[in-house]
Amino acid sequence: MDTERTAEAVTTNVGALSLPPGFDWQHWVARWDQMQSYYLVQREERFALLARTVRGVAGPSPRVVDLGCGPGSLMEAILDVLPQAEMWGIDFDPAALLLARARLARYGQQRVHVTLADLRSPAWMDGLPNRVDAVISATALHWLKPGPLATLYRQIAVLLRPGGLFLNADHVGSDWTLLQAGWERHRTEMRAARNQGVSEADRDSMNQDSLASDSPNSDSPDPGTPEPWDAFWASYLAALDVDATGSRSAEADARVLGGWDGGVEEGLPLTWHLDALREAGFGAVDCFWRCDCDAIYGGIRLPQGSVL
């Protein structure tokens, strides 16, 4: 399929937002992934484990929901590994979903469904199948406060078929201050090591890609240099020519620009999540991967009245 670098290659809009004619969405998808790969050490390893576990538990043609899907990076990883999968992506931010719809258009509307919804409202389940095989998420649910997150876990249990899988790759904190500080220090060291490990050839390649971009609003960061979260969103919204007081909701803008009122940035302790999942009706609750203050955890939705 032709993947030309313009918005004309896809028909994409989310609510009142749409990609401007000629908008270089591929540039912004690549820039997002570059930023996320710096901040989320071993990001590709996490995605691979999520995809492998979904395939192992749910089979080759699962129905999968991605909560807080953002620009669709995890959905793309799952769809590539499971070519018969059907996926639903849900996110609160319309600007992020613009990139997701453009990025995932090549998989077809029969396999990909992207929805604007707030996970704090039960309406996020509207339009989904009565039962799905797996629900996944990556670095999104820490935005939620403990109460709404526990409620969401119960809603996920209702959505999953008996034997269905829930997996979340996200930040997990520690109640012990010294331990949390040590984890965060090690994460900073790993980020620095990864950034220093970018070879000169890779930097030259990224420079060439940046020069090749014909987007007048690309405002590309220096290749190999980590881009701050708020700088990415400020540049992306400027490229979309979006007025924060206009077509986007003030609440959505507050979220992407760091003003979201809720959640715990460093994540709740892993034990909190495991206990909340058991209370929501999950069995085989476990931690599937961990690196300091990041983990992949989840469980299996128990059939009614059964005990694992």
Fold topology:
Elements: E1 13-14, E2 17-18, H1 25-39, H2 43-58, E3 63-67, H3 73-81, E4 86-91, H4 94-104, E5 112-116, E6 132-138, H5 146-159, E7 160-171, H6 177-196, H7 200-212, H8 229-240, H9 250-256, H10 270-280, E8 282-291, E9 294-301
Parallel strand pairs: 3-4, 3-6, 4-5, 6-7
Antiparallel strand pairs: 1-2, 7-9, 8-9
Helix pairs in contact: 1-4, 2-3, 5-10
What does the model show?
This protein has 308 residues and is an alpha/beta fold. The protein has a single domain (1-308), classed as Vaccinia Virus protein VP39 (Rossmann fold). The protein is built from 10 helices and 9 strands. It has helices at 25-39, 43-58, 73-81, 94-104, 146-159, 177-196, 200-212, 229-240, 250-256, 270-280, and strands at 13-14, 17-18, 63-67, 86-91, 112-116, 132-138, 160-171, 282-291, 294-301. The strands form 2 sheets. Strands 5-4-3-6-7-9-8 form a 7-stranded mixed beta sheet, with helices on both faces. It has a two-stranded antiparallel ribbon with strand order 1-2. Helix 2 crosses helix 3 and helix 5 (146-159) packs across helix 10 (270-280). The longest helix has 20 residues, at 177-196. Residues 1-11, 199-217 and 255-259 have low confidence and may be disordered.
